[in-house]
Specification:
alpha/beta, 354 residues, eight-stranded parallel beta sheet, globular, three-stranded antiparallel beta sheet, 13 helices
Length: 354
């Protein structure tokens, strides 16, 4: 059995070494993040199209999103009972800099950033107390961030999150790699990343915790990575089927109904491979272009005139409960969900044994 200890990120101490993964659009907002934080983990709000319920979202999505960042953080604080809160902001987000500044202004404890390398994140955060955790998927990307941040900003990450090939949503791997995950021998990559981070931290007399993400569903999964040298884990998919999750009941039921063979690798319209549940919408998307309206200014790599469907429309439909007309991102273990759970019960499973 692995030794489960609190997760320490600078002056932040999470009693349970678990970060709840950020899930957009609208899947992890204040209700889920606040509940996880209140139970001693780190609750994370996804900023991806966070303002989709705002009245002006269709006409001014950026403004709606920036306003919603502050609103959701404030609501989560009320639920969190003094617990730790983070936001996940994708580097590929249009107006990324403004999203980061809005989160810092709202007093967020931690910014997690992936979907690209967050090279300029230290500059955007400046002297604020907000902790920074880049997401990496390879030793090379970890090296690039560690070297660049130190050389340009004399700053190291406060934590590093390794996101493996079993994660949900957009993935930092090529399609052919995801078609043969065993051939990646990814555990060895994880060990090398941990070693690189530890060596860099030691050079600067610092401590940089490493958190493993992707395919972590239960305590056994967590203990396996702790034994490999990780300091904590990030868990996302498990929290979708909770009463506290911000998604609709129909969205949660899609996970409960999903079988292992329903979970597939898809090509996202923004140019990245991702993992999702194969449903009527995804089958239609394979057959041809699905017409869409005006652009919602989500990801910088999206070309609206060429995209087979609007990813924002698809994700909003799903989270609102129109699952047959939506995209349901999920992790590789989504089929393991059989019922709704309370966040408290999940957190109890991961808690250090007294």
């Amino acid at each position: 059995m692995g030794i489960v200890k609190p997760l320490v990120i600078g002056d932040l101490v999470a009693k349970v070494p678990l970060i709840q993964g950020g899930m957009g659009v609208g899947v992890s907002l204040s209700s889920l993040a606040g509940a996880v934080a209140a139970e001693g983990g780190i609750g994370v709000i996804s900023t991806a199209q966070i303002g989709y319920r705002e009245p002006d979202f269709d006409t001014d999505p950026i403004c709606a999103n920036l306003r919603a960042i502050g609103t959701e953080i404030r609501k989560a604080r009320e639920i969190a009972k003094g617990g730790i809160l983070g936001v996940n902001i994708m580097v590929a987000t249009r107006k990324y800099e403004e999203y980061v500044k809005a989160a810092v202004e709202a007093g967020i404890d931690l910014i997690i950033s992936g979907a690209g390398l967050p090279m300029e994140l230290p500059k955007l955060v400046g002297t604020a107390k907000t902790k920074l955790a880049p997401i990496v998927s390879s030793v090379k990307s970890a090296q690039v961030i560690l070297r660049y941040w130190w050389k340009k900003y004399t700053r190291l990450p406060d934590a590093v999150i390794i996101e493996g090939p079993l994660a949900g949503g957009h993935l930092g791997f090529h399609r052919e790699q995801l078609d043969d995950i065993e051939a990646l021998h990814y555990d060895e990559e994880v060990r090398q990343i941990i070693q690189k981070v530890e060596e860099t931290a030691a050079e600067h007399d610092a401590k940089i915790p490493v958190i493993m993400a992707g395919g972590v569903y239960n305590r056994e999964d967590m203990e396996r990575y702790l034994e490999m040298g990780a300091d904590g884990v990030q868990v996302a998919t498990r929290f979708v089927t909770t009463y506290e999750c911000d998604a609709s009941d129909a969205y949660k039921q899609s996970y409960i109904d999903a079988k292992k063979e329903d979970i597939v690798i898809v090509q996202s319209p923004v140019g990245m491979p991702g993992r999702a549940i194969l449903n009527p919408f995804m089958k239609r998307a394979k057959e041809g272009r699905i017409p869409h309206g005006r652009c919602h200014l989500c990801i910088s790599t999206c070309k609206p005139e060429e995209t087979p469907y609007c990813i924002t429309d698809a994700l909003v439909n799903a989270v609102k409960g129109k699952t047959g007309e939506g995209l349901l991102f999920c992790g590789a273990n989504a089929y393991r969900a059989t019922k709704l759970e309370h966040v408290r019960d999940i957190m109890e499973e991961f808690r250090p044994v007294k």
